Amino acid sequence: MDTGLNLIKDKSSPIALSIHDTALIPRHCHGDIELIYVLRNEITVRMFDREVHLRPDNILCINSGELHELRGAKPCMFISLRIKTDLLNSMNPDIYKGMYFCCDSSASNTRTKFYLIKHCIAELVKIFTSESKPKPFFNYSIAYLLLNELSMHFMPEMFRPELLVKHVERFFKITSYINDNFSKNLLLSDVASAVGLQPQYVSMLFKRHFNMNFLSFYNEIRLSHGVNKLLASNKTIEEIAGECGFSEGRTFALNFKKRYKMSPSKYRKAAQAQETSTDIKKEDYLSLLAKYLPPLWDANIENIGIVTEIKYVQIQADVALEAGLSVPSYKDNIVLASAREALYADIQELLKTAQDEIGFENLCFNVGDAQAVQDKAARFAASIGLKAAVLPEPLDEGPANLIHDTCLQPCVEFKQLFENANGNQRYWRLIDQESGGSAPFAGERGLFTVGGVKKPLYNALRLLGRLKGGVIAKGEGHVMSASPGKIHLLLYNYEHMAERFFVARAIDESFMERLKQVKNLSRLNAEIVIKNISVKVCVIHEYILNREHGSSFDAWIEMGAPDVTDPNTGLLKKICEPKVVFHREEAKDGILTLDALLEPLEIRVIEIEAAP
Q1: SS (H, E, C) 198-250
Q2: Is 181 helix (H, G, I), strand (E, B) or coil?
Q3: Using CA atoms, how far apart are residues 527 and 210, in angstroms rounded to an integer?
Q4: CB 264 within 8 Å of CB 252
Q5: Nearest-5° angle of CA 74, CA 262, CA 269?
Q6: Which of 106, 309, 430, 568 has its Cα between 20 and 30 A from that of 211?
Q7: How far is CA 611 from CA 317, 395, 468, in A?
Q8: CA-to-CA dists, residue 478 to 315, 407, 473, 494, angstroms
Q9: Pick from 146, 151, 17, 149: nearest CA to 95
Q10: Distance, CA of 114 to CA of 587 (rounded, Å)
Q11: Strand 362-367 to strand 333-338: parallel, antiparallel, or no bridges (unpaired)?
Q12: Is residue 130 classed exposed, middle or buried when 0-12, 13-18 and 19+ CB atoms within 10 A define those classes?
């Protein structure tokens, strides 16, 4: 017998959450939508006329009214999350009728599609195994979030025969009707009439797909509900028998003992004892869920109302194929307002830093000065490896915009560079011209603020410099290249600006809240599959730029938006660096698979090389 470890004790919760470590869950049926997520070992789920073999990290949705059993060669640890749609029916009693979800990660090559569901399961397990209690309605918010995710990404057009297994629609109607009316002492003719089929045809479905007659199937349904009532209430055996459609308690007990090898009363006692004494330990399953626990919310569960969506992308590359074109040129020109600026000590230091960390080709001046000044500027430029030139016309950069100081700007620039490339030379202004009063961020296009603080765009260009060699894969939001002994992947989570940005310039935007003009702030879940890897173990370096790492504007906001003073400027210069992550991954059969979850407007470079 397996009752599992029940994590949610509240019987009125719209979610039931349990952890099992067993080789057998007998055939049963319920009105809930159930998600099975395997943690360790393997198990086979039999549903209708198909079997699904689940391995670790696989997830499967079992639909309401779907008879199923789980069986494995040895005990399998898995999580069962059941969404009780009957408790969610108050708003619209008909909304859940006819829902059918095709959610089976064992049959999918895209793991990232299932990330949000796995995250919700992991978050629930973590919360209900901790000492803290969730806020009111937390379970309801998770239930609706999961239903929304299932309906958006896993629900085919309603019962089109070509999308579902043959007879599924009819059998789903039959099992749903029996499940909804199990207490009414049904006859085969009652069921057939309710679903508009001949009794002989209904009988054939049971024999063909479950090798049992209608009465045996009906008893299975009634007994499965009887088990739930035994575990969820203190009702007598007689009361439960009547509620499950049995004429008397003795008949229920005989059928129960035949199915579960013990009497109902003993089953209840054994289940209660197992709830308080279980061999399933926290450390056995929490460690397996850890990779899905990075928060989807800002800080904690109290922010459940501002969950952002997740976009999915699958990136595939074959290192055995010949690399294509090189990475587009972006280091063409760094621009100063005038040649005279190149003679200032603070500007020279910024130029030296930019040359060391990025390396531009030309130093361009927007305005011409006296020839002697230009010559001095040219000599300095040559000393740090730059060619000097005066632009024939002032560089037209357009008006200042507050997004230029944020992580959105490098995403916009990378979108232009890699997806809308037109071969034109790139011009980058070295430093802002105005300070914005007491604030260092005035929305200009400089790579540095007036105080010499690196802006997100500067750090993004630094990361872009790690992209070397020929391009082997390219698409929306990503570029992959290969150089001798290394693979380089650039990811950028670009978001469109809202329509109001182009019409009304975001009237609710403030100096410090600058991203209201962004249409969505979604996370990007990328699954990377690289074929023909020649080594078994790879070293992975990840360089991450987002609002928490490498964005001086966001760091300034976090500091309380102080006035521009030397101590504050110096602190910003020190703390605004991209994050670096190091780990090892194993290639299996020459295929390396990686997952990357990018924050909104994040840029990430991933470098892969053979482990020493």
Answers
A1: CHHHHHHHHHHHHCCCHHHHHHHHHHHHHHHHHHHCCCCHHHHHHHCCCCCHH
A2: coil
A3: 38
A4: yes
A5: 90
A6: 106
A7: 20, 46, 19
A8: 8, 16, 8, 10
A9: 151
A10: 22
A11: parallel
A12: exposed
What one-character-per-residue DSSP string does 560-575 give? T-----HHHHHHHHHH
Query: Model-level pTM?
Result: 0.61
The CA distance from 578 to 571, in Å, is 15
Neighbour count for residue 318 (Cβ, 10 Å): 14
Identify the pLDDT of residue 467. Answer: 94
Q: Which residues pair with 448 in a beta bridge?
A: 431, 454
Query: For residue 289, which of 152, 175, 134, 123 has the smallest C-alpha distance?
Result: 123
Q: Give pLDDT, residue 562.
A: 77
Start-end of H helices in 3-137? 115-128
Low-confidence ranges of the chain (pLDDT < 50): 1, 158-166, 276-278, 296-307, 502-508
> How far is the C-alpha of 472 from the C-alpha of 480, rounded, in Å?
6
- Compute the distance between CA of residue 346 and CA of residue 448 in angstroms, rounded to an integer: 12
pLDDT of residue 274: 55
Element (H, E) at 184: none
The answer to whether 540 touches 569, Cβ cutoff 8 Å, is: no
DSSP 1: -
Two tokens, residue 15: 């979610």
Give the integer Cα–Cα distance in Å for 76 and 40. Answer: 6
pLDDT of residue 508: 47
The CA angle 589-592-598, to the nearest 5 degrees, is 160
Q: Could you tell me the CA-to-CA distances from 19 to 113, 251, 274, 434 in Å, in that order?
A: 23, 32, 12, 60
Q: Which of 432, 433, 410, 413 is nearest to 424 (CA)?
A: 413
Short-list 35, 28, 48, 87, CA closest to 172: 48
* Kind plus residue range of the DSSP H or E element containing 281: none
Residue 69: closest CA among 102, 28, 18: 28
3-class secondary-structure state, position 334 = strand
DSSP H or E stretch at residue 315: strand 310-318
Sheet containing strand 310-318, edge to edge, reads 310-318, 523-531, 592-598
Q: How many CB atoms lie within 10 A of CB 101?
A: 19
Number of H helices, E strands in the chain: 17, 20
| Identity of the amino acid at 144 | Y
Cβ atoms of 596 and 313 within 8 Å: the answer is no
Tokens standing for residue 148: 């929304």
The Cα 136–Cα 134 span in angstroms is 7
Helix (H, G, I), strand (E, B) or coil at 128: helix
Given the structure tokens 């309401």, which residue do they identify?
Answer: 64
Burial (Cβ within 10 Å: 0-12, 13-18, ≥19) of residue 309: middle
Q: How far, CA to CA in Å, does 122 sit from each of 42, 141, 178, 234, 606? A: 19, 15, 33, 31, 26
- Strands of 478-483's sheet in order across: 470-475, 478-483, 486-492, 603-610, 537-545, 579-586
SS3 label, residue 63: coil
CB atoms within 10 A of CB 95: 13
Rounded CA gap, 167 and 201, in Å?
11
